[in-house]
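Figure S7 source data.
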Amino acid sequence: MNVYDSLRMVDLMRTLGFEQTDTPDDADMIIFNTCHIREKASEKIFSELGRFKPLKEQRKKQGKDLILVVAGCVVQAESAEFMNRAGFVDIALGPQTYHRLPELLRRLEQKRKQRIIDVEFPAVAKFDFLPAAKSNGVSSFLAIQEGCDRFCSYCVVPYTRGAEYSRPLNEIVEEARQLAETGTKDLMLLGQNVNAWHGEGKDGTPSDLSRLVKAVAEIDGIERIRYVTSYPSDFTKEMIAMHRDIPKVMPYLHLPIQSGSDRILKKMNRRYTCAEYEEIVACLREACPEIALSSDFIVGFPEETDDDFEQTMDLVRRVTFAQSYSFKYSARPGTPAAAMKDQIPEEIKTERLEKLQALLIEQHAAYNAGFLGKTMHVLLEDKAKKAGYLLGHTPQMQNVVVKASEEFLGQIVPVRITKTAATTLDGELS
Ligand code: SAH
Ligand code: SF4
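Tokens for the predicted iron/sulfur cluster complex:
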């Protein structure tokens, strides 16, 4: 979502005549887009900003300026403290007000360098004020839903991104069309709780994610559709059926479970059990046998015992994952879990994370090894670092490095897999 927001800010700044540069030395303005989800991500911004303070001072000495803007959830969550810790920042804004950047820049000029902060949750969503979307390549993100009302006990999202909001279907289809017309073939529909998206179809009837996906699939040029991140208990039969019935829906699903212990899931305020999760997975695999499953895990949640953790390991062994993201629990200020007794010591968190990741990496490697020698349809999206090679994705969202010349960029081509590892495949045009 932050990548999407950053690209939308670039689109917005282009309307004022700005262009993106590759080096800070060329920049008149630098925007930092921040993440508050875990402490590590959150703290990063202060060290990053520290690096740019001298550059700003140097510009001042030359009679010029470097405008420093900080956007995103760290600002939203910590606005006042943020400005105290980073007083040389010119503009600070939250994730729901970045459409106001042009106006804030004008105010900055008028106020002759007084700092500006904007962390409102506006009544009219920012999407109404953003310029037409433009593809940056063949793969694009499209935010369809934002915010969250679920209040998992460890999570800052409901506080930083605000209440759940679904963009209207017509607006999403229009943005998807703009992206298709400017070169997008592969579309990732985004939302903090993407399968909670709801709206009205063209005929005014209630519509869920499966109807939206159907509408997007009708757009010429869009060849691959994925959506992230889904919440298990918002998953419906219709969404399972779309994996079977709509060829453009790719066989990949990111469905975070967080823990394999029902006791911990309850404390996390996750509203499903492991059995319910496994039932959804079984139905999905029946509807779409080739589906690749990915998940998120948190280890070391308050009160997690060795037994709870072993239950997570057992769940992973039973379900098996093609990809995953796993994290040590990070206490976030203001969330209920941060105030829970029995916080788990860091070294136990580290130990559990290492064990879990070793198992998951083994599963990812075994999953990928099953594709050795097979031919897969790969969308070639980018140049690789190594000359003469391109990067792409399989329908199952595996990364592939392919020996191919640049003329194949942007095409979906058959690739024979010649080597596999836990996070990448190597292949050659077949
Ligand atoms: N809405 C999605 C997840 C969004 S946050 C869902 O409910 O599944 C992305 C991931 O960050 C989460 O799945 C979780 O695994 C991780 N995460 C969120 N808060 C965290 C915290 N306080 N400590 C550690 N990991 C956290
Ligand atoms: Fe955070 Fe996801 Fe829970 Fe919402 S559903 S509170 S985004 S973890």
